[in-house]
Amino acid sequence: MVSAPSLQRRAFLRGRQTLETPLRPPWAGDEGVFLDACTSCLACVAACPAGVLVERDGRHPVFDPRRGECTFCAACVEACAPHALDFGRAEQPWQLKAEIGNACLAQRGVVCLSCRDVCGEAAIRFRPAPGGARPDLDRERCTGCGACVGVCPTAAIVVAPAQEAGRER
Ligand code: SF4
Ligand code: SF4
Ligand code: SF4
Question: Which CATH number fits domain 24-79: 3.40.50.300, 3.40.710.10, 3.40.50.2300, 3.30.70.20?
Answer without folding.
Answer: 3.30.70.20
